[in-house]
Design brief:
alpha/beta; GlcNAc-PI de-N-acetylase; 245 residues; LmbE-like_dom_sf; globular
């Protein structure tokens, strides 16, 4: 069924991590949106390109790294994004996962997002001229304990192509893994790793291996029905008119 899906992300790569579900919604006739809190200028260009590949409309809140706070200014910005899109479904980071994540800003960002989802439906910031919007269905991405998966096999090529244009992220990952991985382990993960001539090439090669493994695991590798799947955790109970397979 076609939906209005809004991804509320922190850094930017979340767009591709949820790219299969977002692209599937577009293919079903829905509209997919993404709003990012923290995204450096070069990364913004890459994320916009990834959005074009996936059919997702992207905007940026322009928050400052290390300064995300659960205050009125930040609440207004996120509430504004929710009310403008008026989504039926929101995808965002998993509270459990983000609590132990050592990426800066993830913990206050999670509290901010949850506060904004509640405030968007109430009499908060009505002076901005945007009507309240009911709390939508919420799915947490890359959760510690998923309770559902989405078939992304038909959109695997799009998801891979979207990751390929996140060049600033791939370069960062390439440098990181070159420093962190034992050369023999890197070679086992990506045959020919030592011959790759740039951080970009190394990052792209490892991401392809990693992404393929993760999504196969949540798909057919996890006794599932799909070759590739994205894992999610739906907030709250599933309300079904009848039992489904």
């Amino acid at each position: 069924m076609a939906e209005r899906v809004l991804l509320i992300g922190v850094y930017g790569m979340e767009l591709v991590e949820c790219g299969g579900a977002l692209a599937a919604n577009v293919a079903a006739g829905g509209e997919s949106f993404a709003t990012m809190m923290l995204c450096r200028e070069r990364m913004q260009s890459d994320v916009r390109k990834a959005g074009e590949v996936l059919g997702v409309e992207v905007d940026f809140l322009g928050f400052r790294n290390g300064h995300v706070a659960v205050d009125e200014e930040h609440k207004r910005a996120v509430v504004r994004a929710i009310r403008r899109v008026r989504p039926t479904i929101v995808i965002t980071q998993d509270p459990e996962h983000s609590l132990a994540d050592l990426d800066p800003d993830r913990r206050p960002a999670m509290t901010l997002i949850l506060e904004a989802l509640g405030l968007a439906s109430r009499e908060f910031a009505l002076d901005e001229g945007l009507d309240p919007h009911p709390v939508p269905t919420v799915y947490y991405m890359t959760p510690s304990h998923p309770n559902c998966v989405v078939n992304i096999a038909p959109f695997w090529d799009k998801k891979t192509a979207a990751m390929d244009v996140l060049e600033s992220q791939l370069e960062f990952s390439g440098r990181h893994w070159s420093e962190q991985l034992d050369p023999k382990d890197a070679e086992a993960l990506v045959p020919g790793f030592a011959e790759l001539d740039s951080d970009l090439a190394r990052g792209r090669a490892v991401h392809r291996a990693l992404d393929r493994a993760v999504h196969i695991y949540h798909g057919i590798g996890h006794h599932g029905h799909y070759a590739f799947a994205e894992a999610y955790r739906r907030e709250g109970d599933f309300h079904l008119p009848a039992l489904v397979r």
